[in-house]
Amino acid sequence: MMNTEIGARFEKYVVGLLRRQGLAAERNLLYHKGKKRTCQVDVESRSGIIFSHRTIYECKYICVGNSLDFNRAYIQLGEALLFTGYDDGVIVTNSIVSDREKKERHYGMRIFDGAFLAELRFGQAEGSLDFLVMRIDSEIRRTPYNPDIDHLFRHKYL
Predict the structure, then answer these.
(1) Is 157 within the bounds of a domain?
(2) Disulfide check for 77: which of 10, 16, 89, 109 has CB 3.0–4.6 Å away?
(3) Is residue 85 part of a domain?
(4) Cα(158)–Cα(144) distance, rounded to whole angstroms?
């Protein structure tokens, strides 16, 4: 699979997980300020009816053998938060992040890694963490993909 295809599948998978948690979630958004300033957001969610809490998710699908560039993801997420004025940011990855809590404190934002996604998806399921993360990866790869519509942006204006 090409990077753009697996990235789109991963974002759609994350949207599905968020919706199962009762959140209103969308993906592939392009925010506009003025005539020339834009910012792309992978996934966003909203919770609450009267006082809405808005969260941006920077999704990073990592192939086996590669590692996540936290500095780059942190900068991308930080720029999106500043641009949109949203309340919260989360880095989401399919890989297992060592010292996740330490990295969350260091970067000042939450990280949903493969272990967190597996717990969110399967709860306290039986089996090794590696097996559950492989199941997550299998589900991501089976997520429906339509190149004609999955790369279209939803335009929003601030």
Answers:
(1) no
(2) 89
(3) yes
(4) 31
31 φ/ψ angles, rounded to the nearest 5 degrees: -90, 145
Buried/exposed code over 100-115 (b: 16+ C-beta within 10 A; e: otherwise): eeebeeebebebbbbb
pLDDT tens digits, residue range 80-106?
999 999 989 999 999 999 899 999 999
Whether 88 is covered by a domain: the verdict is yes
Query: What digits encode the pLDDT tens for the residues 37-86?
Result: 999 999 999 988 777 899 999 999 998 778 889 899 999 999 999 999 99
Domain range for residue 88? 3-143
Instruction: Give the count of domains, the chain.
Output: 1
CB 89 within 8 A of CB 56: yes
pTM recorded for the entire structure = 0.93
